[in-house]
Amino acid sequence: MNRKRILLGIAIFLVLIQFIRIDKTNPPVDSKLDFATVARPPAEVLLTIKGACYDCHSHEIKYPWYSNIAPVSWWMKGHVNEALEHFNFSTLGVLNPEDLKWALGTAADEIREKKMPLKSYTWMHPEARLTDTQRALLATWLTTFTPVSTGYGKIEGEKQ
Q1: How much is the pLDDT for 160?
Q2: Is residue 29 part of a domain?
Q3: 3-class secondary structure per residue, 90-159
């Protein structure tokens, strides 16, 4: 009898927590501040970054089906919030050229050292798994990127 009550209590608890939803609202994206506009990467670099990074590190998050199931949704939202605090492709344009270079270099290190994308993410998103070739491509491009080469930080009409 006691075991049945415990199981019933757990079942009721699991049902009730489903009513505590996460906020899935993505802030609007200002294309002038987004990585694609700011850095003007080659198509292959941009597609790879969008496929492996944007779901956690941008304002273009596509929430998967399991984001509707508590407590997994809470854990996932916490990871996304933390990811955005560390690096956000949607707001890179607010950085000065030196900080942008540093941020992209740090991202290159994380990718090169296989710290990103997280294994907990690629487990459910095999399309985000990076090959060694893709890692090398991203790390090289992010490391060698120079804001001046794209005119980043240049005031309109200013000569360089």
Answers
A1: 41
A2: yes
A3: HHHHHCCHHHHHHHHHHHHHHHHCCCCCCHHHHCCCHHHCCCHHHHHHHHHHHHHCCHHHHCCCCCCCCC
